[in-house]
Amino acid sequence: MDESSVRFIGNATTLIRHNGFTVLTDPNFMHRGQRAHLGYGITTRRLHDPAIDGSKLSPLDAVVLSHLHDDHWDRTARDGLERITT
Description:
- By secondary structure, the protein is mainly beta.
- The chain is 7% helix and 35% strand.
- It has one domain (4-80).
- It has one helix at residues 75-80; strands at residues 4-10, 13-18, 21-25, 35-39, 42-45, 62-64.
- Strand 1 (4-10) and strand 2 form a beta hairpin.
- The longest helix is centred in the last third of the chain and has 6 residues, at 75-80.
- The termini are far apart.
């Protein structure tokens, strides 16, 4: 039997699990009130905390980024997610 789940974390951040494979989309773990830089001097303020803290994630198999603005790939995620290079 396939084990699957989808968990919305906030903004565009979603944790997808299927058959032991775990993917995180657009990691954004900034907290309420923090500002995300969108480019060309434009910022936005986070209105809600993420559903879970990025440091509480189990190991990931992949991270999917739609684009590199801070509201989809923030410094908290850049600094906190473990990187494995091959």
